[in-house]
Design a protein that fits this description.
The protein is of the alpha+beta class. About 30% of the residues lie in helices and about 35% in strands. The longest helix is centred in the middle third of the chain and has 20 residues.
Length: about 200
């Protein structure tokens, strides 16, 4: 059997595929197809993160967008893996108190703005309970008027190569992490084109 379309693959994972086609997909996966295994793994991770994050339930359009993404670009993304894009710090409210941020009316200890590959990442870091911090972020694509490219993205906070917090952006590219311990982390964002990394994100109060 040729590789199933991505919609059939995730319908198989969700138990919605009709029995005959489900048997064919199961047989194909058992054959060891690396492309379909990678797609299956990606969808399982997305589903796991969405289920564990009670603050955001991905809408149907986000699921459909993921299907279109893999149907259009699965060959390119599998055969020619792109290198992570390292985000550069464009603004730090601790370093430059003269510039007013987009959310300057709110009381946050620190605002950090990063830029990478046509995207900007706006992070607000403030106190939470028990000497922990909260991070409120928004991802925007600078050339886009809407939010289609920044909705439903996976965001990971990593320390010592271990994921500390995973979440998914909402319909306007926003995300929130609460109760983060003080320290230095790596923030990774999986966009449609590539992964963006902030390798040394300071979470300090």
């Amino acid at each position: 059997m040729r590789c199933p379309v991505f919609q059939d693959l995730i319908d198989f994972q969700d138990g919605r595929l009709e029995p005959v086609l489900a048997g064919r997909v199961e047989q194909h996966l058992a054959s060891g197809c690396l492309k379909c295994a990678a797609d299956r793994s990606w969808y399982e991770r997305l589903r796991s993160v969405a289920r564990s994050d009670s603050r955001f339930c991905p809408p149907l359009w986000a699921r459909n967008r993921a299907i279109l993404l893999f149907d259009e670009e699965r060959e390119k993304s599998f055969d020619v893996p792109s290198l992570p894009e390292i985000a550069l710090l464009a603004y730090d409210s601790v370093r430059d108190q003269s510039w007013a941020g987009a959310r300057s009316s709110e009381c946050f200890d620190r605002q950090l703005v990063y830029s990478a590959g046509g995207y900007s990442i706006d992070l607000q870091i403030g106190p939470a309970e028990a000497r922990a911090a909260q991070i409120i972020g928004q991802i925007l694509q600078e050339s886009e008027r809407g939010f289609a490219s920044v909705a439903g993205l996976l965001v990971d906070l990593v320390k010592a190569e271990q994921s500390i917090w995973s979440t998914v952006t909402n319909g306007v590219g926003e995300f929130r992490m609460i109760g983060v311990e003080i320290g230095q982390y790596q923030l990774t964002i999986d966009t449609r084109e590539k992964q963006i990394r902030i390798p040394a994100l300071p979470i300090l109060l």
